Amino acid sequence: MKPATARRLPDAAVVRRPARVRLLWLLVAALVLAALMVASVAFGSRNVGWSDIWAAIGGADESLEQAAVGKRIPRTVLAVLIGAALGLAGAVMQGVTRNPLADPGILGVNMGASLAVVTAVAFFGLSSPTGYIWVAMAGAGLSAVFVYGVGTLGRGGATPLKLALSGAATSAAFASLVTAVVLPRNDIAGSFRLWQIGGVGGASYERIGHVLPFLATGFVICLLSAKALNSLALGEELAAGLGERVAVARGVAALGAVVLCGSATAVAGPIGFVGLVVPHACRLLVGVDHRWLLPFAALLGAALLTAADVVGRVVARPAEIDVGIVTALIGAPFFVWIVRSQKVRAL
Asked: Using only C-alpha atoms, what is the Rg of the chain?
């Protein structure tokens, strides 16, 4: 018979993946992402041929097709960056909290960033793109601290279900506050209504340039936290016995996740469920070692958001469905399944 502890752990936690299998999955994920990026440039309300794609890459915009490609390229790049940021942030949040329900949207982090940006624009006249990002990161950080503080109240501390419930309640409250702030302001209501859904439409190289330094910083912090997250997965006492400064490790990793969430939300709006779905899929493929899990989560997150953007453009053309709606349609049933499974106890 298997030990009781082994029976309670998910299969991904007890089966060790050989390095060659992990490398193979990373290669597959990279190839899938590359194919989706090509599809994102080629498909939309107007399909384009290879000649137009190559001409547009070279800077030509002499036809409608070439102009369409010129707009899709920065949109594709932004979808890749935002998807990678949300997938990586979700994996880090789940590692920091040891909570399989952790996700920037479910824990209220995205909505906290949204509320901070809306409040700053409506009451303080914020207009700087870089200012949006700083304010969004501050809102995301404060929301994460608040949700975790509420989740620790009562017996048992911050259990996965308590964190999910406190995050859901906080998200609902913040969403109501966002609506209350935006509705009386006709001058900003239209643009913020679209932004609140979450999407990568209207992307430009200028917007990417503003957010790229923040995303790069978040990527570096999170990836460098992989070893510490492996120690934290063993439990606080054992991690401390191995020489890990638990509070510092958690704080640094959480900071990286907050930077990624805040930056992504400032540019693309509060896109949900990417950070929930992606880490679980990654654990099934490459296991629980964060040195492999984190880069794989970034690749798979980029692929998921790019695919969702392509689907949203194709199924409703000549109109389009915002990527935040597509990810919600994918992630909501997955969230219900996770809640109903035994994995909800802890990672």
From this structure: 20
Q: Which amino acid is at 279?
A: P
C-alpha 13/C-alpha 230 separation (Å) is 12
Going from the N-terminus, what domains does the chain have, and what CATH number goes with each?
71-342 (1.10.3470.10)
How many CB atoms are closer than 10 A to CB 269?
Answer: 24
Q: For residue range 220-252, what is the model confidence (pLDDT) as tens digits?
A: 999 999 999 999 888 878 888 878 888 898 889
Provide the token pair at 110.
Answer: 């995205």
Identify the CA nearest to 249 among candidates 260, 239, 234, 259: 239
Q: What's this model's pTM, rounded to 2 decimal places?
A: 0.87
d(CA 47, CA 70): 13
CA 4 → CA 1, 159, 256, distances in Å?
A: 9, 20, 35
Number of Cβ within a 10 Å radius of residue 173: 13
